[in-house]
Amino acid sequence: MPDIQLKDACKTYGSGEAAVRALHHLSLEIKHGEMVAIMGRSGSGKSTLLNVMGGLTSLDSGEYCFNGENVNGKKEAELSRFRRNHIGFIVQHFALLQDRTVFENVMLPLKYNKMSKAFMTEKVHQVLKSVGIFELRNRYPSECSGGQCQRTAIARAIVNDADVILADEPTGSLDEKTEASIMALFHTLHQQGKTIVMVTHDRSIAEQCQRIFHISEE
Q1: With CB atoms counted within 10 Å of each terminal CB, which end of the chain scores lower, N or C?
Q2: Which residue segments constitute the domains of the chain, with CATH numbers given?
């Protein structure tokens, strides 16, 4: 059974002459443990597709099923649990809180679960070690390089043991050397059994994935 299944998915923003069609009768399946890339021109709906997969955006029509369960149409409380239990998000510009340390940024997703402070601290330390930035735990994002900030964002995405990692241009703002180190980290997560869906405009990045989905505007 696929982790992710979309059937005839449609999404339009606005109405009338101002309407913008983001997804048009899109269908795809992503199996558990796959690492796939999504490519397409700017405005073709790539980020909208990730937001649908992550339960942030609902479809106008069509189906989105996760592990065989229909996600589209769930109430907001159910969607929050879905995201918390299954999804890790990574974005191009990191989306870290500038007034929180690396440690505090990574701990944020755990604060919505009923865990002791000691358990959360140990969990965050484990994840920071796994992505190679444990020594940066007390720094603020402004004191970190782009690659270190992206590793922090990856740590935050996986600290809840998410089944699926959704990454929107995760290497888009990085230099070539840092890009290679971040992709090595994604490959490690993939080898550990994570399902990874990555939006990218970079063909060399996409070709490191098992499959590439191309989205067109038509």
Answers
A1: C
A2: 32-58+83-215 (3.40.50.300)
